[in-house]
Amino acid sequence: MKIAILSREPKNYSTRRLVEVAQARGHQVEVLDTLRCYMNIASHNPSIHYEGGELGSYDAVIPRIGASITAYGTAVLRQFEMMNTMALNSSVAISRSRDKLRAMQLLSRHGIGLPITGYAHSTHDVPDLITMVGGAPLVVKLLEGTQGIGVVLCETQKAAESVIEAFIQTNNNILVQEYIREANGADIRCLVVNGKVVAAMRRQAQPGEFRSNLHRGGTAEAIKITPEERATAVQAAKIMGLDVAGVDILRSARGPLVLEVNSSPGLQGVEAASGKDVAGKIIEFLELKASRKNKPAE
Predict the structure, then answer these.
(1) Any idea what the CATH number is for the domain that residue 225 is in?
(2) Helical H runs in 52-195?
Protein backbone atom coordinates (compact mmCIF):
# COMPACT_ATOMS: atom_id res chain seq x y z
CA MET A 1 0.00 0.00 0.00
CA LYS A 2 0.92 3.63 -0.38
CA ILE A 3 0.40 5.20 3.05
CA ALA A 4 0.41 8.85 4.14
CA ILE A 5 1.04 9.71 7.78
CA LEU A 6 -0.23 13.13 8.83
CA SER A 7 2.24 14.31 11.44
CA ARG A 8 4.01 17.57 12.24
CA GLU A 9 6.82 15.62 13.92
CA PRO A 10 8.45 13.06 11.59
CA LYS A 11 11.11 12.29 14.24
CA ASN A 12 8.52 11.65 16.95
CA TYR A 13 8.78 8.09 18.34
CA SER A 14 5.23 7.10 17.36
CA THR A 15 5.61 8.40 13.81
CA ARG A 16 9.01 6.73 13.36
CA ARG A 17 7.71 3.39 14.64
CA LEU A 18 4.74 3.44 12.28
CA VAL A 19 7.04 4.28 9.34
CA GLU A 20 9.54 1.54 10.28
CA VAL A 21 6.92 -1.16 10.69
CA ALA A 22 4.99 -0.23 7.54
CA GLN A 23 8.16 -0.16 5.43
CA ALA A 24 9.31 -3.48 6.89
CA ARG A 25 5.98 -4.96 5.78
CA GLY A 26 6.55 -3.73 2.22
CA HIS A 27 4.50 -0.54 2.18
CA GLN A 28 5.48 2.83 0.74
CA VAL A 29 5.17 5.52 3.43
CA GLU A 30 5.31 9.31 3.30
CA VAL A 31 5.10 11.62 6.32
CA LEU A 32 3.22 14.83 5.53
CA ASP A 33 3.21 17.94 7.71
CA THR A 34 -0.51 18.41 8.35
CA LEU A 35 -0.32 22.22 8.32
CA ARG A 36 1.55 22.25 4.99
CA CYS A 37 -1.31 20.43 3.26
CA TYR A 38 -3.77 22.71 1.47
CA MET A 39 -6.90 21.80 -0.38
CA ASN A 40 -8.99 22.28 -3.50
CA ILE A 41 -12.50 21.44 -2.35
CA ALA A 42 -14.14 21.54 -5.80
CA SER A 43 -16.65 18.71 -6.11
CA HIS A 44 -15.57 17.75 -9.63
CA ASN A 45 -11.89 17.41 -8.69
CA PRO A 46 -11.13 17.45 -4.94
CA SER A 47 -7.39 17.47 -4.33
CA ILE A 48 -4.71 18.07 -1.74
CA HIS A 49 -1.62 20.11 -2.49
CA TYR A 50 1.72 20.02 -0.70
CA GLU A 51 4.90 22.05 -1.12
CA GLY A 52 3.71 23.66 -4.33
CA GLY A 53 2.21 20.67 -6.10
CA GLU A 54 -0.75 18.31 -6.10
CA LEU A 55 -0.37 15.13 -4.09
CA GLY A 56 -0.91 11.84 -5.83
CA SER A 57 -3.31 9.22 -4.56
CA TYR A 58 -2.81 7.14 -1.41
CA ASP A 59 -4.38 3.88 -0.35
CA ALA A 60 -4.51 4.83 3.32
CA VAL A 61 -3.85 7.73 5.67
CA ILE A 62 -2.79 7.53 9.32
CA PRO A 63 -3.75 10.74 11.16
CA ARG A 64 -1.41 11.79 13.99
CA ILE A 65 -3.12 15.12 14.58
CA GLY A 66 -2.15 17.17 17.63
CA ALA A 67 -4.92 18.61 19.79
CA SER A 68 -3.90 22.20 19.01
CA ILE A 69 -4.56 21.72 15.27
CA THR A 70 -7.67 19.54 15.48
CA ALA A 71 -9.84 21.80 13.29
CA TYR A 72 -7.34 22.09 10.44
CA GLY A 73 -6.12 18.52 10.80
CA THR A 74 -9.60 17.01 10.57
CA ALA A 75 -10.34 19.23 7.55
CA VAL A 76 -7.28 17.78 5.79
CA LEU A 77 -8.35 14.28 6.77
CA ARG A 78 -11.88 14.90 5.46
CA GLN A 79 -10.32 15.91 2.16
CA PHE A 80 -8.45 12.59 1.99
CA GLU A 81 -11.75 10.83 2.75
CA MET A 82 -13.47 12.80 -0.04
CA MET A 83 -10.78 11.44 -2.35
CA ASN A 84 -11.66 7.88 -1.25
CA THR A 85 -8.51 7.40 0.82
CA MET A 86 -9.06 5.00 3.71
CA ALA A 87 -8.39 6.61 7.11
CA LEU A 88 -7.14 4.65 10.12
CA ASN A 89 -9.50 6.75 12.28
CA SER A 90 -12.22 8.81 10.60
CA SER A 91 -12.38 12.59 10.80
CA VAL A 92 -15.81 12.35 12.44
CA ALA A 93 -14.54 10.02 15.17
CA ILE A 94 -11.50 12.21 15.88
CA SER A 95 -13.65 15.36 16.13
CA ARG A 96 -16.09 13.55 18.42
CA SER A 97 -13.38 12.36 20.81
CA ARG A 98 -11.51 15.70 20.85
CA ASP A 99 -14.58 17.53 22.13
CA LYS A 100 -14.21 16.44 25.76
CA LEU A 101 -17.68 17.54 26.80
CA ARG A 102 -19.40 15.86 23.87
CA ALA A 103 -17.32 12.73 24.40
CA MET A 104 -18.30 12.50 28.06
CA GLN A 105 -21.96 13.03 27.24
CA LEU A 106 -21.82 10.22 24.67
CA LEU A 107 -20.05 7.88 27.09
CA SER A 108 -22.55 8.72 29.82
CA ARG A 109 -25.48 8.13 27.48
CA HIS A 110 -24.16 4.62 26.81
CA GLY A 111 -23.70 3.79 30.48
CA ILE A 112 -19.90 4.01 30.66
CA GLY A 113 -18.56 4.72 34.16
CA LEU A 114 -17.27 8.29 34.55
CA PRO A 115 -16.15 10.52 37.40
CA ILE A 116 -19.02 12.81 38.48
CA THR A 117 -18.54 15.78 36.17
CA GLY A 118 -20.06 19.27 36.14
CA TYR A 119 -20.19 21.99 33.50
CA ALA A 120 -21.45 25.53 34.00
CA HIS A 121 -21.33 28.98 32.41
CA SER A 122 -22.15 31.38 35.24
CA THR A 123 -20.07 32.12 38.32
CA HIS A 124 -23.36 32.33 40.26
CA ASP A 125 -23.66 28.55 39.95
CA VAL A 126 -20.18 27.71 41.26
CA PRO A 127 -21.16 26.80 44.87
CA ASP A 128 -23.82 24.33 43.73
CA LEU A 129 -21.51 23.01 40.99
CA ILE A 130 -18.92 22.17 43.65
CA THR A 131 -21.56 20.48 45.81
CA MET A 132 -22.82 18.54 42.79
CA VAL A 133 -19.46 16.81 42.25
CA GLY A 134 -19.05 15.99 45.94
CA GLY A 135 -17.13 19.02 47.17
CA ALA A 136 -13.40 19.53 47.54
CA PRO A 137 -10.96 18.10 46.77
CA LEU A 138 -11.97 18.24 43.13
CA VAL A 139 -10.34 18.54 39.70
CA VAL A 140 -10.80 21.40 37.23
CA LYS A 141 -9.97 20.68 33.58
CA LEU A 142 -9.71 23.00 30.60
CA LEU A 143 -11.75 21.53 27.75
CA GLU A 144 -8.93 22.38 25.35
CA GLY A 145 -6.16 21.04 27.60
CA THR A 146 -3.87 18.13 26.72
CA GLN A 147 -1.03 16.13 28.32
CA GLY A 148 -2.05 17.36 31.77
CA ILE A 149 -1.89 21.04 30.83
CA GLY A 150 -4.83 23.01 32.22
CA VAL A 151 -5.67 20.42 34.90
CA VAL A 152 -5.82 21.71 38.48
CA LEU A 153 -6.41 19.87 41.76
CA CYS A 154 -8.33 22.09 44.19
CA GLU A 155 -7.96 20.76 47.71
CA THR A 156 -10.32 23.16 49.53
CA GLN A 157 -13.73 24.73 48.88
CA LYS A 158 -12.18 28.20 48.77
CA ALA A 159 -9.49 27.17 46.30
CA ALA A 160 -12.09 25.45 44.12
CA GLU A 161 -14.30 28.54 44.05
CA SER A 162 -11.36 30.81 43.19
CA VAL A 163 -10.01 28.59 40.39
CA ILE A 164 -13.41 27.88 38.80
CA GLU A 165 -14.46 31.55 38.93
CA ALA A 166 -11.12 32.65 37.44
CA PHE A 167 -11.47 30.23 34.53
CA ILE A 168 -15.09 31.21 33.85
CA GLN A 169 -14.38 34.96 34.09
CA THR A 170 -11.57 34.62 31.53
CA ASN A 171 -13.93 32.82 29.13
CA ASN A 172 -12.31 29.40 29.47
CA ASN A 173 -14.53 26.35 29.11
CA ILE A 174 -13.92 23.90 31.94
CA LEU A 175 -15.09 20.62 33.38
CA VAL A 176 -15.30 20.19 37.15
CA GLN A 177 -14.78 16.59 38.30
CA GLU A 178 -14.80 14.65 41.52
CA TYR A 179 -11.37 13.62 42.76
CA ILE A 180 -11.00 9.83 42.91
CA ARG A 181 -8.87 9.52 46.02
CA GLU A 182 -8.55 5.74 45.90
CA ALA A 183 -6.78 5.92 42.51
CA ASN A 184 -3.75 7.30 44.40
CA GLY A 185 -2.51 9.40 41.50
CA ALA A 186 -2.50 6.49 39.05
CA ASP A 187 -4.46 5.69 35.92
CA ILE A 188 -4.48 2.96 33.30
CA ARG A 189 -3.91 3.56 29.58
CA CYS A 190 -5.44 0.86 27.39
CA LEU A 191 -4.44 0.74 23.71
CA VAL A 192 -7.42 -0.47 21.71
CA VAL A 193 -6.96 -1.63 18.11
CA ASN A 194 -9.88 -3.04 16.11
CA GLY A 195 -12.01 -3.75 19.16
CA LYS A 196 -9.27 -5.39 21.25
CA VAL A 197 -6.98 -4.13 24.01
CA VAL A 198 -3.52 -4.91 22.56
CA ALA A 199 -1.48 -3.34 25.38
CA ALA A 200 -1.99 -1.64 28.73
CA MET A 201 0.12 0.27 31.22
CA ARG A 202 -0.31 1.78 34.65
CA ARG A 203 0.84 5.39 34.91
CA GLN A 204 1.79 6.72 38.33
CA ALA A 205 2.19 10.40 39.14
CA GLN A 206 5.47 11.48 40.68
CA PRO A 207 5.45 12.38 44.41
CA GLY A 208 3.63 15.65 45.08
CA GLU A 209 1.86 15.51 41.69
CA PHE A 210 -1.60 14.09 40.94
CA ARG A 211 -1.37 14.12 37.12
CA SER A 212 -0.02 10.79 35.89
CA ASN A 213 0.82 11.93 32.33
CA LEU A 214 4.29 10.78 31.27
CA HIS A 215 4.89 14.31 29.91
CA ARG A 216 4.55 15.53 33.50
CA GLY A 217 7.13 13.14 34.91
CA GLY A 218 4.86 10.19 35.62
CA THR A 219 6.20 6.64 35.44
CA ALA A 220 4.75 3.66 33.60
CA GLU A 221 4.68 -0.08 34.16
CA ALA A 222 2.93 -3.08 32.65
CA ILE A 223 -0.36 -4.03 34.26
CA LYS A 224 -2.86 -6.87 34.03
CA ILE A 225 -6.26 -5.31 33.55
CA THR A 226 -9.53 -6.83 34.73
CA PRO A 227 -12.20 -8.14 32.34
CA GLU A 228 -14.40 -5.18 33.33
CA GLU A 229 -11.61 -2.70 32.53
CA ARG A 230 -10.98 -4.41 29.20
CA ALA A 231 -14.67 -4.31 28.27
CA THR A 232 -14.93 -0.66 29.32
CA ALA A 233 -11.96 0.36 27.16
CA VAL A 234 -13.26 -1.50 24.11
CA GLN A 235 -16.77 -0.09 24.51
CA ALA A 236 -15.49 3.48 25.00
CA ALA A 237 -13.46 3.31 21.77
CA LYS A 238 -16.47 1.85 19.95
CA ILE A 239 -18.78 4.63 21.17
CA MET A 240 -16.32 7.23 19.84
CA GLY A 241 -16.12 5.36 16.53
CA LEU A 242 -12.34 4.97 16.87
CA ASP A 243 -10.61 1.87 15.47
CA VAL A 244 -7.40 2.88 17.26
CA ALA A 245 -7.61 4.63 20.64
CA GLY A 246 -5.89 5.17 23.94
CA VAL A 247 -8.50 4.88 26.69
CA ASP A 248 -7.56 6.32 30.09
CA ILE A 249 -9.23 4.64 33.05
CA LEU A 250 -9.23 5.18 36.82
CA ARG A 251 -9.70 2.31 39.24
CA SER A 252 -12.37 3.39 41.72
CA ALA A 253 -14.49 1.89 44.47
CA ARG A 254 -17.40 1.75 42.02
CA GLY A 255 -15.46 0.16 39.16
CA PRO A 256 -13.53 1.50 36.15
CA LEU A 257 -14.11 5.17 35.31
CA VAL A 258 -13.12 6.58 31.91
CA LEU A 259 -11.18 9.85 31.96
CA GLU A 260 -10.55 10.29 28.25
CA VAL A 261 -10.51 8.55 24.88
CA ASN A 262 -7.48 9.61 22.84
CA SER A 263 -7.57 9.34 19.04
CA SER A 264 -3.78 9.74 18.56
CA PRO A 265 -2.26 7.85 21.49
CA GLY A 266 1.49 7.96 21.92
CA LEU A 267 3.25 4.63 21.47
CA GLN A 268 6.56 5.10 23.28
CA GLY A 269 5.37 4.74 26.87
CA VAL A 270 3.01 1.84 26.29
CA GLU A 271 5.43 -0.11 24.07
CA ALA A 272 8.25 0.33 26.60
CA ALA A 273 6.08 -0.58 29.59
CA SER A 274 4.20 -3.51 28.05
CA GLY A 275 6.85 -4.89 25.70
CA LYS A 276 4.16 -5.14 23.02
CA ASP A 277 4.58 -4.19 19.35
CA VAL A 278 1.65 -1.78 19.23
CA ALA A 279 2.83 -0.15 15.98
CA GLY A 280 2.81 -3.59 14.38
CA LYS A 281 -0.77 -4.22 15.53
CA ILE A 282 -1.83 -0.87 14.05
CA ILE A 283 -0.27 -1.57 10.64
CA GLU A 284 -1.69 -5.11 10.62
CA PHE A 285 -5.14 -3.65 11.25
CA LEU A 286 -4.64 -1.09 8.47
CA GLU A 287 -3.88 -3.96 6.08
CA LEU A 288 -7.01 -5.79 7.23
CA LYS A 289 -9.14 -2.68 6.80
CA ALA A 290 -7.77 -2.19 3.28
CA SER A 291 -8.49 -5.80 2.35
CA ARG A 292 -12.09 -5.40 3.52
CA LYS A 293 -12.48 -2.20 1.53
CA ASN A 294 -11.09 -3.79 -1.64
CA LYS A 295 -13.01 -7.06 -1.30
CA PRO A 296 -15.46 -7.34 -4.22
CA ALA A 297 -19.16 -7.54 -3.38
CA GLU A 298 -20.60 -11.03 -3.64
Answers:
(1) 3.30.470.20
(2) 70-82, 91-98, 100-109, 126-132, 157-169
